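Known limitations

Files may contain more than one protein. Parsers should not assume a single record per file. Below, a two-record file is shown to illustrate correct handling: read the sequence, read the token line, then continue until end of file.
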Amino acid sequence: MQKKILYVGMDVHLLCIVIAVMDQQGKILNRSVIETSAQAVRDFLSGLRGELHVTFEEGTLAAWLYDLVEPLARRVVVCNPKHNQQRMGRNRNDLIDANRLAELLRLNAVQAVYHGETGTRTLKHLMRSYECFVSDITRVKNRLKSLFNARAIRSRGRALYHVSKRRAWIEKLEDAGERQRGELLFLQLEELKELKRAAQKAMVGESRRHPAHPVLSQAPELGPIRVAQIIATVDTPFRFRTKRSFWKYLGLAVERRSSSDHEIIDGRVRRRQHQVVETRGLNEDYNRRLKSVFKSAAAHACGCGVYKEYYAGLLAQGMRPEMARLSVARKLAAMTLAVWKSGERFDEGRIMKKAA
């Protein structure tokens, strides 16, 4: 006898989870509110009789809940809340959201967010620690800049942050409170730099344990930090069937909209040769970390290495510099995906041709 399929929508919050259970005909069988705890989730799902298909939106608790629910359900879909925004309607509360999530899952109308590999979990945490320290250092530097700018003391470039010139900068502040504030900010900056170096060392060391590290590190444009960020974010290259799907994930895919695509000639419908096509720019739904990684790598590659000649050739053809850098970034991304999938060594001629 075939098991009854149940679609479970979860609206997840820190204190509680609102759950709606729907059958194949769209009938709500159960509505519940449970505590946000591992035992409560296990008890509720174990009490359901049928083949479970579960969905909830990406958020702070998504990774924890995915690992908890995955062994208990036939299918678990962590869905993209941006994709659901228009489908969820205007009148919303926790119970309505849970019902609509279950309905969207029943209709197979949810866009999944990848939650699959667990082998890079340690690397993910180390990478986030490193990025947090980088962000904190930037904030402290901005506070120091604003402290001196507020007293019309000009500070250009990196001169303000040199340890050897720190005392001279502090003496330019007339008020005792400002001098003490400046000293504390400088101390905070040094502590954060030490923590950043420790986090970077741990992150790079962990990434070297991954089988993809020796393959990707052959490309000099990437470097150990970028390689670690790519491995931690992508997990596996086989998530992407083609380079174009990878470009879309990176925010490097061009979006176009066409109209008047077809015409009727002699009673037959055929596709028009001259369509009305509107280019709308790069896609907006993308992974921001990886876009930054490949944009910065492309900016470096345009000035040296195997991509310098390619970049110069694009400029010689009349392409705008920003579009040429985009082409280099896409070429670099395609090369990364091709090498990672095949596991072969980086070869300038062969890989550049394959990535074209």
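...continuing to the second record:
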Amino acid sequence: MVPKVPGERALAFASRWFEPAIVHRTFEPLIADWQREWYESEPSRRPWVSIRAAAAFICAAVISSPGIIALPTPRSISLQVARRIALFCLVIGGALSIPMVRSMEARSLEAPWWGAMLLMVMPAALSITFPFAMIIAVDAIRRHADVPSHVARAAALKLGVIAICLMQAAGGFVGPLANRKWTELSTPAGWNIPQRRPQQLSTVALLRHPERNTAIVPAPQYTRAGEIRRELINRSVLSVMPAMFVWLRWTALSHPRRRRFWPLPASAMTALVVVLFFASFFSGFRLEIELGMAPGSGLMLPLVVFGLWTLAEQRLAQRAKAA
């Protein structure tokens, strides 16, 4: 039986992510040397040759990776992605904000403060809706069939990185600040402002909190340290979810054999992802309480669920391409 030629998958990976000039100048000679040395070596030495060559390939990919981020995204794609995300977040986030503000208004807030309260609520509402906008954003990238594969992949990668940074800023700084202002504004005159909850502290303040390293008691009797740990895990999970949804939608659209009902349209896929996310989120919360797990452990269930879903999609796509 003729042994399989090494380096084929590595070269295919480089061709998907890097510009043709970089592939031709850097990766093709590296793979050619890998294959030549592999053929000329004794069978007992071939595993060692492959290990050294794979390490050299990884180093070359890491060194060349800044070129992926620096690769310019076509203006048509950028505008379409930004337009879809903005429209989705403003419509859905605005709809979520109205019940929150009206509930506060019912507590005898003066009418002139209604607009200010809306501004306080919007960061939290946008943080909830923004991750789910990644589904339609990926469709905006993939619909441009004339764009080379490596350019589209670079655009999706940059979308995921930017989304993580925005979620970190919104959940770690803007959201807590708005939450504090909300509490101050809604506290009746003459009343003492309540002690700041972990949700009202920035991520830096939580990491530097003097009680963070004290004893942690499992649910349901959370200590202050447990509440801080839970809030930090919650922010970390929510920050990663946009990139997870980008990966999930990209993998679903990469399947070579399209079926009648799969992959779902962007709107149906978004609705399914929303339902599954909140179902796994609250299920993880319940499991954490019932099993007496460490605070915040159950909040990682959505990452596990969507990670397994994406890996299954990727595996099926690879099998379909091989067939």
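Parsers that stop after the first record will miss the second one. For reference, the second record is described as follows. The chain has two domains: 8-70, 75-322.
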